[in-house]
Specification:
homodimer, about 190 residues, alpha/beta, Rossmann fold, two-stranded antiparallel ribbon, globular
Chain lengths: ~190, ~190
């Protein structure tokens, strides 16, 4: 998605350790008009008539997932992150390693709000190693729901997280901007796949 | 807002300790159409032409704040919650007590994204004691920005959190459903103020 790549080129900041900050328009201050355009782009990629719910993980995925769910006319469901060992019953859960917290966190979704009848589109704003995404996929499987697709705004392609989702059979995967390389010359994107 | 009160009456769950769960449509699975209607309601209450940014706190406020910001044509900015003592520089911060985490957390907003030129509408989905809301107000003041209004979807009026904001001079405060009492007879709402 050219518009998104331009924003990343223009406003993204490259920090030591190949960290790319897009917190001016995607995951701290959020450009809601851009999110609307991203939702339109996903509407072209996925068969949105099939989808019954958009799933994401707190916190930064919520904004984009909400705009997408509203565009597709379905509810948005976000997995909560628990750092406690004291997890209630009645929850789907998946343990993932969080780079934000530098430790394992558990993704939680109430069994009340996701069932085998659901057709799920997972949406996230950012994917690096794909651990959180795998946790969301695990939760969809735990519920016996049908995973219809995975949509990511920005993928750090050089960390390899997206490749295992591209290889999943029967699940459409789409990242709108895949960062191939980050170095002193700036940010290089992968050609659209 | 009658539609919201009806949803709370019909789908809200009262748990021991006067806890009211609205996680089926507001803060876990989110009814995005309802959020659109709530944003329309806030558009009637606040002078949205003045607003330059909608501010909220992660995580559950993000969905509603995003839909409101999109409706008003401005960015959405969410304060991050840090549980660490290791806070970077360049941040506005306010320490608040979190009932979710049962301890103090620090609300953080990058100084890059909020300035004295901003006219801020704070939006949150739920308010009980108002501690998190006070933290957001403190951050607006720290930035020297102008607080134009505070909009809350559901207020637990009997916990008194809303009253100090109603008493603020020059700041419009609006809660769309104020719960006055919760007992064996169910949920009683305050008349619209």
């Amino acid at each position: 998605m050219e518009q998104l790549k331009q924003r990343i080129r223009r406003e993204g900041k490259v920090l030591p350790g190949n960290i790319i900050k897009v917190d001016g328009f995607l995951n701290h201050r959020v450009d809601t008009a851009l999110l609307g355009d991203i939702a339109e782009e996903f509407a072209k990629v996925f068969d949105t008539k099939k989808i019954t719910v958009v799933l994401t993980a707190e916190a930064s995925g919520i904004a984009l997932a909400t705009v997408c769910a509203q565009r597709f006319g379905v509810p948005m469901l976000f997995a909560k992150k628990a750092k406690s060992d004291n997890i209630e019953s009645g929850l789907y859960q998946s343990e993932v390693f969080s780079y934000t917290y530098k430790k394992k966190v558990t993704l939680l979704v109430s069994q009340e709000w996701l069932s085998a009848d659901d057709h799920v589109l997972i949406i996230d704003d950012f994917m690096a190693n794909g651990f959180a995404m795998q946790g969301l996929v695990d939760i969809v499987n735990e519920a016996g729901a049908t995973l219809e697709g995975i949509g990511v705004a920005v993928e750090k392609g050089f960390q390899g997280g997206g490749d295992k989702f591209r290889a999943m059979k029967g699940v459409r995967y789409k990242a709108l901007a895949v960062i191939e390389k980050v170095d002193e010359n700036g940010i290089t994107f992968r050609e659209d796949d």
